[in-house]
Amino acid sequence: MRGKLLAMNLSQILHHKMTKAGLMLALCAGVCTAPLLMNFSDDEEHVIYVDRDDTVDSIYQKLGTEAHGFSLTLFRVLAKTTCYSTVRLGRYDIGSGRSTLRVFRDLRRGFQTPLSLTIPIVRTTEDLAQFLGEHLEASVEDFRAALTDRKTLSTFGKTPETAICLFIPNTYEVYWTVSPQQLLERMQKESKLFWSSERKAAAQEQGLTPDEVITLASIVENETAYNPEKPQVAGMYLNRLRKSMPLQADPTVKFALGDFSIRRVLHKHLTVDSPYNTYRNLGLPPGPIGIPSLSSIEGVLHAAKHSYLYMCAKEDFSGSHNFAATYEEHLQNAEKYSAALNARNIH
Question: Is 237 helix (H, G, I), strand (E, B) or coil?
Fold first, then answer.
């Protein structure tokens, strides 16, 4: 009688109709309430990835690698009695104190464990596509296509030049199998949450749209890593915009050339014919020259109010800058920095 009740409970737990022979097989293999609830692994997270090339047999191998010596007998019994054959893609945690039954159920039904995806500070759309393709199931090519397709991006109010504006640097929980389209939808949702009424009002006060804030913030990001200085740098560029002066931002020239190894921007670099060359074109470039940090975005939204129109890296190579309100003063600062570069033989 006890065996029949146990068989019924097992059938109910698995949510799958089992034959009497299948139940007897499970019972003969030693299936009982206790091992069904035993931990498949320890309390640490142990993840396996089930991809398009996997079969039930290859999943067994992955489980054996991550299960730290736990017998797979029970898992094989469950798979056989439920005719487990359909492989579901995903990222699955088989540790964290999970029982064998739960691991089996998750794999069988495709109940994935989400991963924490931290959007990095990257320079180009290609860099972003590479990062996403390395951390998610979709390929680099798939993400590159989504981030450069005008028709797709138009549904999000973006262009290939402004696609990066959707990606607010933060950490998000997503499924490994999220498609490029689904990820863009998620990023649009997160972007809308980020752009609160307060931030939109701050952007409007600066005379900028949210995308323009991120574009300017990407320049600030590449100009200084010193967070307290970012509102100062942003204020200087805003002053230039308001006076219809070219921004003359060296990072935009490096972006236009596609050469981020340049340490010293020379006159020959300034002739590059590109809408991103802010020495030759007035106003902001067509889009960001990278994903800026939150500190750079906030630096633009809360830019310092001053009269500076020029900036030059300090000659002590501290990473901060000398600011100037007049061109004459700027030339003095530039001469000091140039002398320091020459002294270090930096070309």
Answer: helix
Using DSSP, state whether 27 is helix, strand or coil: helix
Q: Which residues in 95-111 are b (16+ Cβ under 10 Å) and which e? A: bbebbbbbbbbbbbeee
Cβ atoms within 10 A of the Cβ of 268, count? Answer: 7
pLDDT above 70: percentage of residues in the chain? 86
The Cα–Cα gap between 303 and 297 comes to: 10
Inter-CA distances, 226 with 161, 212, 230, Å: 27, 22, 7
* Residue 322 host element (H or E): strand 321-324
Average pLDDT over residues 36-61: 78
- Give the closest residue to 59 by CA, choosing from 78, 35, 32, 38: 78
Distances (CA, A) of 298 to 27, 132, 195, 226, 289: 63, 25, 11, 13, 17
Q: Two tokens at 229?
A: 């200085």
Torsion over CA: 118, 120, 125, 129 (sign): negative
Which of 97, 120, 8, 86 lies closest to 44, judged by CA?
97
Select the more confidently predicted residue: 264 or 141.
Answer: 141
pLDDT digits 0-9 by tens, 175-210: 999 999 999 999 999 999 999 999 999 999 999 999
Give, in degrees to the nearest 5, the angle at Cα 183 between 148 and 284: 45
More confident of the two residues 266 and 188: 188
- Count other Cβ atoms within 10 Å, centred on residue 25: 15
Q: Which amino acid is at 97?
A: G
In angstroms, the CA 241 to CA 283 distance is: 6
